[in-house]
Amino acid sequence: MASYDLAIIGSGSGNSLITPHWDNKRVALADKGIDATGAFGGTCLNVGCIPTKMFVRPSALARIPEEAARVGVTQQTLAADWPAIRDRVFARVDAISERGKEYRQELENVDLISEKVTLTSPKSFRTESGQDIEAEQLVIAAGSRPELPEVPGIELPQVHTSETVMRLETLPQRILIVGGGYIACEFAGIFSGLGSEVIQINRSEGLMNQLDHEISAAYSAEAQTNWTVRYERTLGAVEPSGEKVTAHLVTSDGRAEECEVDIVLVAIGRRPNSDLVGAEEAGLDLHPDGRIVVDEYQRVLSGGTPVEGLYALGDISSEPMLKHVANYEARVVAHNLENPQQLQPIQNLPIPSAVFSHPEIAQVGMTEHQAAASIGSENVTTKTQRYGDTAYGWAMEDTYGVFKVIADKRNGQLLGAHAMGYQASNLIQPVVHAMSFGQDAQTVARGQYWIHPALMEVTENALLGLDVPPPASV
Ligand SMILES: Cc1cc2nc3c(=O)[nH]c(=O)nc-3n(C[C@H](O)[C@H](O)[C@H](O)COP(=O)(O)OP(=O)(O)OC[C@H]3O[C@@H](n4cnc5c(N)ncnc54)[C@H](O)[C@@H]3O)c2cc1C
Ligand SMILES: NC(=O)c1ccc[n+]([C@@H]2O[C@H](COP(=O)([O-])OP(=O)(O)OC[C@H]3O[C@@H](n4cnc5c(N)ncnc54)[C@H](O)[C@@H]3O)[C@@H](O)[C@H]2O)c1
Fold this sequence. Notes:
Layout: E1 2-9, E2 27-30, H1 42-47, H2 49-62, H3 64-70, H4 82-106, E3 110-113, E4 117-121, E5 124-127, E6 132-140, E7 144-146, E8 159-160, E9 174-178, H5 182-194, E10 197-201, H6 213-226, E11 228-230, E12 233-241, E13 244-251, E14 256-261, E15 263-266, E16 270-272, E17 299-302, E18 305-312, H7 323-338, E19 353-355, E20 361-365, H8 368-375, E21 380-386, H9 391-396, E22 402-408, E23 414-420, H10 424-427, H11 429-437, H12 441-446, H13 457-464
Parallel strand pairs: 1-2, 1-6, 2-3, 6-18, 8-15, 9-10, 9-15, 10-11
Antiparallel strand pairs: 4-5, 5-6, 7-16, 12-13, 13-14, 17-18, 19-20, 20-23, 21-22, 22-23
Helix pairs in contact: 2-4, 2-5
The structure holds flavin-adenine dinucleotide (FAD) and nicotinamide-adenine-dinucleotide.
Active site: 452
Domain FAD/NAD(P)-binding: 4-329
Family: Belongs to the class-I pyridine nucleotide-disulfide oxidoreductase family.
């Protein structure tokens, strides 16, 4: 049995835990590699946030002629060179992953274990090649993986997940996207912008249904204008059809439909990798959806009690599967590993997120429905500001952008914001800031200059439009 001061399972957010504090101590970092490529460095870098957004950008540029036409400029997108786009993305990403791995291999105090490992007790694990490792402190940061439906043909090479679809040889002419959440909507935006014919199906009515209803309805309507969307359908089977495949769909009332496409992208959710690390067998507490249970210090619970020196973070334990959530938890865990006598808890801050689709969506805090359930609908005030009713919106000739804020009518406390449109992920940040630091709507709207006529006036006007008590001064 090899003994370490610190062992980490997962080289995504887990990799950042190896701070200078561990320079003269022994650290083991285990990562089996991303399934599709064996790459080091986890989901965000290799198959998640970073490469997807590097595809979103060229896709958005390819759409510019539509926008230009609205303001009297004629432009044409002549081609989207898929191999060039793909190679630009992965030349950068693969190099970072490889350099990161080499760096870890070179460190004298770190042993990199490029194998799948399984817990043998809460603070020990065995590698696939049979090596046993124990550690004084252990962090499980083993992430999540795509959920796949158990349907005939799911193993066909034309059926992809987010882990493989960005490395396609050629741009598909016709693609079926299964799912109505983050991944499905981002890839529908990417592929339709680059020129593929996209057919997106979702099991339920509407896309991004967990969002504020006004935004999910507006997004669903807008998506229909950019690609084909069909609701109340699931994937029943996939069958080869020459180089293409025939996807057999089942409607919610049991009818069968067929659709011939080049590829199918399945994006129906991600499951935490707690089963891959053998968390349940090691006696760790799990939520019904498979996430490892942690306390406010990110310590893992076993039989309802925190295990000293055992932490989990990121997708394997957190409900929002978001990189900025995993990063924040990693900062807290890094502190707690180094200061076991002065543990710091996770702060209860509002967690924003964005869907980098076309259009872009961003949100923070409560939906209107949640706010009404929380403080009573009579105490809720909302304002939905159209981009098109602001000066920069006129410049853009914007037709669909909306920014909705929700506040407590009695005191102006901000409860949530929900936006859809150009740069929504940036426009929402002042509200994230205000909610995080406890600033009310009037303070944020009137307590600073807002640059005129910047697009950010959309956010300012939304805040000014709330029915909240007047400010102490103008
Ligand atoms: C397509 C896509 C786009 C996304 N875009 C965004 C975005 O724009 N913004 C955002 O905030 N979030 C985004 N996310 C989510 C974000 O990528 C994740 O929340 C984040 O990467 C999770 O980090 P992690 O450290 O928990 O896990 P990971 O980065 O997945 O790291 C876990 C590592 O553990 C390894 N591992 C698992 N089991 C074992 C085992 N038994 N033994 C050894 N190693 C093991 C895995 O190989 C993996 O490398 C996206 C996700 C996807 C899939
Ligand atoms: N920009 C970002 O921050 C970003 C981007 C991508 C992924 N992510 C993270 O990754 C997670 C996983 O993304 P995801 O899109 O796979 O999951 P998701 O939970 O966001 O969406 C899953 C969708 O699939 C649908 N669905 C489920 N089963 C189905 C079936 N059998 N047939 C048809 N539709 C079905 C659901 O109705 C839902 O619309 C997200 O929840 C998010 O946390 C974040």
